[in-house]
Specification:
The complex is a heterodimer of chains A (228) and B (566). Helices cover 45% and strands 21% of the residues of chain A. Chain A has 228 residues and is an alpha/beta fold. In chain A, helix 6 crosses helix 7. The longest helix of chain A has 20 residues. Chain B is built from 11 helices and 16 strands. In chain B, the strands form 4 sheets. A 5-stranded antiparallel β-sheet of chain B has the order 2-1-5-4-3, with helices on both faces. In chain B, a hairpin with a 2-residue loop joins strand 3 and strand 4. In chain B, helix 1 runs antiparallel to helix 7, helix 7 runs antiparallel to helix 8 and helix 8 packs across helix 9. The longest helix of chain B is centred in the N-terminal third of the chain and has 72 residues. The chains are: A alpha/beta (228), B alpha+beta (566). Chains A and B meet through helix 1 and helix 4 of A and helix 7 of B.
Chain lengths: 228, 566
């Protein structure tokens, strides 16, 4: 999924991009409203994170112009303007959600996942695969969640991609580079610590005993494997 | 200026002006009537003055006639009377009538000259009716002389207002020849009759015996003399440029006129004034052009009205402009304040966002083994959260002044929000030796503003963190009853002295004692918390506790099904 981030503050923009990339999204960035409009037209992102107070064209105007072309693409406002009128105005302009600065990373992730579920839910109508199972873990990709018994586990997009990769390659020891290519994108090769950290965090949530994992097995010198 | 403000401005100025103009118009109308009456009175007084002038002349003439009749009385020879008539041009004829009403002169039985014949002809009615016999006689103490004795020397005073008194003794007042007849006037006056072209005037005097002696005034000479007393006809002599005064006789024929104005034919005079007796059938008429009259009546009226309205209008415009400027200035200042607050809010929140976001991102990248690093990041995150609360408090306080606080209630679970808040404070409080014990009994879905709840509870726990360090247990309990939620936060710290308990909710008030001096704070936390609680339909109170401080927060939290209207 492609996400467009429009934010004039470089640090906030880069931080958001990192959060989104860690979640498994492809990212596009714009430093002002006009650039955001241009990128929306050329790249057709799946959803958009918009700051409001930007030079040249503010976020409200960007939202208005995007909505004039596309009524369905999800838009989240991320702004320091916290008054009710600001939120109401943002939602009236057509945004789907409104995050107030300063925000916690978890809050942003939760709201982005909520939006992603809506996007994926719209696509699900066209696809057959609703869920898949990795042992006793049932994964619902469109809902970015997995169930183990009664326990509901929220998943990021990347985590869903990783689990989907293992599911489709049952019994195969997947090389690190393969996992990187499939789940991080061909152009982006993070260091191996990133992969290990990601797997470690995933195991903490999906494994009954993270120290003795059943689902994602380590294959030393190669990568990881799902035995089935 | 916005259109609506411009319309209001016009209404503020125009409506009072319109009202004033309407009232002024009515006033002017009434004023005009008053001025019109005063003007007519002025014209009438001018005519009255002219009448006085004419009467004065007639009085002078009367004295002369009195002298003439005295002389006739003293020498009643026909020739003497004729000679006197010829000499005195003011009279056209004289007459003497005996007590029986017989005309002694002119003697109808004798030879008459043309003048006498004409006189008799035109005065025939008088002699036939003997009207002069019945003229009033003065009720004075008349002479003891029983018969008409013209030779008797009598003294009398010539006073126009008095009838002569008869004394039976000689006097020194007047030197009177012994052979001169002196008329004892027992009555005198004018007699008016109509004949021919107009009125004729007789002057008469009656003696004690009832004889009447008089003279007819020469009509032409009379009119000419009267005209001579009147103003001439040259322009500029009358009071008004477009006016004309006429003296008309009983038939309305103009005897004389003066003034430059030419009234239309058959025009009615503005004011008419009949002359006094004996010329009461004559009238003085004042003609004045309508324009001249209106100019006089309106002179100053409309100017006064318009100048008054202009002055009031200017004052109103000035006042309205002043209020508009003041209002605009206040609006501008308020806008500047709002913009400033928003700008400050944005400027503070942006770096704060970065601090918190990058701290959390870094935290995610550290291994569990990097405990010290994680702790450091915990501090950064916690402090940035505290800074967020502080900024929120300051902005809330700033907005509170302008009543910009708004409550936004959404469905949620109070205990979930409380748990989130408590989780946020756990690391900090743990570091300060405070353990939170949460007893949650508000698990139902209700309507409330989570941000408001977070700000209030955050302020209260923040105070515990500041003032109850190392105090051990912090008990937080929630409960729901009816449509409200009660939250109790009780610490085991030093508490609040009784003397200061009533002041802690005042803005900028901070506890001051040996233990608390030096602790950082703004003094607005509790103020804002209580204000927010009240906005949320509840209250924040300090309740009694055996140890430490115990705050009770009550919020109006209707259930989701019972969502309040509006």
């Amino acid at each position: 999924m492609k996400v467009l981030v429009a934010e004039d503050d470089d640090n906030i923009r880069n931080g958001l991009l990192q959060i989104l990339e860690d979640e498994g999204y492809q990212t596009l960035s714009a430093a002002d409203g006009r650039e955001a409009i241009a990128l929306f037209g050329s790249e057709n992102p799946d959803f958009i994170c918009l700051d409001i107070m930007m030079p040249g064209m503010d976020g409200y105007e960007v939202c208005k112009q995007i909505r004039a072309q596309n009524q369905l693409v999800p838009i989240i406002f991320i702004s320091a303007k916290s008054e009710e009128i600001d939120r109401v105005l943002g939602l009236e302009f057509g945004a789907d959600d409104y995050i107030v600065k300063p925000f916690g990373v978890k809050e942003v992730i939760a709201r982005i996942r909520a939006v992603t579920r809506r996007c994926l839910g719209q696509r699900q109508d066209q696809e057959e695969n609703i869920s898949f199972k990795l042992q006793n873990l049932e994964v619902f990709p469109a809902e970015l969640r997995a169930n183990r018994g009664d326990t509901v586990i929220d998943l990021s997009l990347r985590e869903v991609k990783i689990l989907d990769l293992f599911y489709r390659n049952k019994g195969v020891a997947l090389d690190r580079s393969v996992i990187f290519t499939q789940c991080w994108g061909v152009s982006h090769i993070p260091n191996s610590r990133t992969l290990d950290q990601q797997i470690s965090q995933l195991r903490k949530r999906i494994e009954a005993d993270p120290k003795n994992p059943d689902i994602i097995q380590t294959v030393h010198g190669v990568g990881y494997r799902f035995d089935g | 200026m916005k259109p609506r403000l411009f319309i209001i401005f016009l209404l503020i100025v125009l409506m009072p002006l319109a009202l004033l103009a309407w009232m002024g118009r009515r006033m002017v109308r009434d004023e005009r009537e008053i001025v019109r009456h005063q003007f007519e009175n002025l014209l009438e007084s001018q005519l009255r003055d002219i009448d006085t002038l004419i009467m004065k002349f007639l009085q002078e003439r009367e004295r002369h006639l009195q002298d003439i009749t005295d002389r006739i009385y003293s020498d009643m020879e026909k020739s003497s009377i004729r000679a006197l008539i010829r000499k005195e041009s003011i009279i056209s004829q004289a007459f003497v009538m005996d007590p029986k009403g017989r005309l002694v002169y002119p003697d109808q039985t004798g030879a008459l000259n043309n003048n006498e014949k004409a006189f008799l002809d035109r005065s025939r009615q008088i002699w036939m009716n003997k009207e002069l016999l019945h003229l009033p006689v003065a009720e004075q103490d008349i002479s003891q002389v029983e018969e008409f004795e013209p030779q008797q020397a009598i003294s009398y005073s010539r006073n126009d207002e008095q009838i002569a008194q008869v004394q039976n003794k000689p006097v020194q007042q007047v030197s009177i020849p012994q052979n001169m007849n002196i008329l004892i006037s027992q009555g005198r006056g004018w007699y008016l009759w109509y004949w021919g072209r107009g009125i004729h005037l007789l002057y008469w005097q009656k003696d004690a015996y009832g004889s009447v002696i008089g003279a007819e005034l020469d009509r032409v000479r009379l009119i000419s003399d009267i005209i001579g007393e009147l103003p001439d006809t040259s322009p500029g002599k009358s009071s008004f440029a477009e006016s004309l005064i006429t003296l008309t006789d009983s038939k309305g024929s103009v005897i004389y006129q003066w003034g430059a104005y030419e009234p239309p034919e058959n025009a009615t005079p503005k004011v008419s004034y009949p002359l006094s007796h004996p010329l009461q059938s004559w009238k003085l008429n004042y003609h004045i052009s309508h324009g001249e009259m209106e100019a006089v009546i309106n002179r100053g009226l409309w100017f006064n009205l318009f100048s008054g309205l202009a002055a009031v209008g200017l004052a109103l415009v000035g006042l309205a402009f002043y209020f508009y400027r003041e209002s605009s200035r206040e609006i501008r200042q308020a806008t500047q304040r709002v913009n400033f607050v928003n700008q400050v809010s944005h400027e503070l929140k942006t770096p704060l966002t970065n601090i918190r976001m990058y701290a959390e991102l870094l935290e995610n990248e550290l291994d569990e083994e990097q405990g010290r690093g994680r702790n450091h990041l915990d501090v950064i995150v916690t402090e940035s959260q505290r800074l967020s609360r502080l900024i929120a408090n300051v902005l809330t306080f700033a907005r509170k002044k302008k009543s910009q606080l708004t409550i936004r209630k959404t469905p949620g679970v109070i205990d979930d929000t409380m748990q989130m808040i408590i989780d946020g404070f756990q690391p900090t409080l743990k570091a300060k030796g405070i353990t939170i014990c949460f007893d949650g009994n508000a698990a139902g879905s209700v309507l409330f503003d989570p941000d408001i709840l977070a700000q209030i509870v955050g302020n209260l726990i923040n105070n515990v963190e500041k003032y109850a360090t190392g105090s051990g247990e912090l008990k937080i309990a929630t409960g729901q009853e009816g449509g409200s939620t009660k939250i109790t936060i009780a610490d085991q710290g030093p508490g609040i002295p009784e003397g200061q308990q009533g002041k802690i909710f005042q803005p900028f008030y901070r506890l001051s004692n040996k233990l608390t001096d030096g602790i950082a704070g703004t003094g607005i936390g509790l103020t804002i918390s209580r204000e927010l609680a009240k906005k949320h339909g509840g209250d924040l109170r300090l309740i009694h506790a055996d140890k430490g401080a115990c705050f009770q927060l009550v919020l109006d939290t209707p259930t989701s099904e019972n969502k309040p209207g509006g």
